[in-house]
Amino acid sequence: MKKFQVVGIGNAMVDVLAPCDDAFLADNGVEKGIMQLTDMARGVELYAKIGPALEISGGSAANTIAGVAQLGGRAAYVGKVKDDQLGAIFAHDLRAQGVTYETVMAGRDATDETGRCIVLVTPDGERSMNTYLGVTEFLTPADIDEAQMAEAEWIYLEGYRFDGPESHAAFAKAIAACKGAGGKVSLTLSDPFCVSRHRSAFRDLIRDHADLLFCNRAEMLSMYETDDFDAALARAAAEVAMVACTDSENGAHVLCDGQRWHVPATPVTVVDATGAGDLFAGAFLWALTAGHAPEDCARAGCLAAGEVIGHIGARPEADLPALMARAGLA
After folding, report:
1. Residue 124 binned pLDDT confidence (cut-offs 50, 70, 90)
2. Would you say 98 and 75 are in contact if contact means Cβ atoms under 8 Å apart?
3. What is the model's pTM?
4. Is 328 helix (H, G, I), strand (E, B) or coil?
5. Following DSSP, what letter does each residue of 23-88 receive, concatenated?
């Protein structure tokens, strides 16, 4: 038995959720209701201006791996933070979830700081996100522990991390170590705009290395540059052994071994859709490594996604193992 069921590689950031009013947004030039990338000066400025906030480790793949761990899975994570206040919060919080996190921090003299997403929440519930990537953008092959990758049943690669200058090389090193030891590779496409930036690299990875592809409907259509969803799914299934594609309120589609399953979404009142895809992937991978059939893996994913969109924040608040047990997926 390998030490880890899943090892994730991606962004390492801290989500900073702070209440504010519309006047604060206007006074600080924050466009309401969207995500905007910021530089370090802007990230530090906004962080200094907000009031009391909830700070929790974040990043898409980190949320996925936290979900695996909360379900009882053996999980590890690789992502870069700095040896600063927010870096310490990220490391402590992720480890507290039961995740092995050993990535060497950037030194205190590093130019960039730990990445952060400052989420300003107005009284109407609207979220305005300001994202400073920080040192997480500079993940390098040196941050990849080949022995750890060899101990993974699956590695989970975050599409967002393709934006880093050395991330492709880091991913290649992880893939070689994992595959060389009999492990498997999963990839999440992360975002349609991420797909448009890295379509060729994604296609090569999907075709040559991936065993499981995670995406949503928009990402799938962008990947294969078509408006025909079924055709895009079929093309993906011809290139990778398993495809798990979410489709918002329509649930999820799984394709494997020439078969296709559709799993309905879990009925829920949507409060905050952040983290839905992340937790879908986490529960899916947990179920897969526990030996469940593809359709049941998607059912577990939809249950976890339904839980996380029912409240503010991208981490589960309910007892996920109990949730799965009630659904017969323990």
Report:
1. confident
2. yes
3. 0.92
4. coil
5. HHHHHTTPPTTSEEE--HHHHHHHHHH--S-EEEEE-HHHHHHHHHHHTT--EEEE---BSSHHHH
The number of residues making up the chain comes to 330
Tens digit of pLDDT for each residue in 70-99?
999 999 999 999 999 999 999 999 999 999
Closest CA to 73 of 305, 291, 326: 291
Q: Is the torsion defined by CA of 73, 9, 120, 268 positive or negative?
A: negative
The crossing angle, in degrees rounded to 10, of helices 192-208 and 167-180 is 30
Amino acid at 290: A
Handedness of CA 105, 66, 45, 40 (dihedral sign): positive
Rounded to an integer, what distance in angstroms lies between the CA atom of residue 186 and that of residue 314?
21
- Note whether 179 and 208 are within 8 A (CB): no
Domains of the chain (ranges; CATH) run 4-11+59-107+135-326 (3.40.1190.20)
Instruction: For residue 251, give the amino acid letter.
Output: G
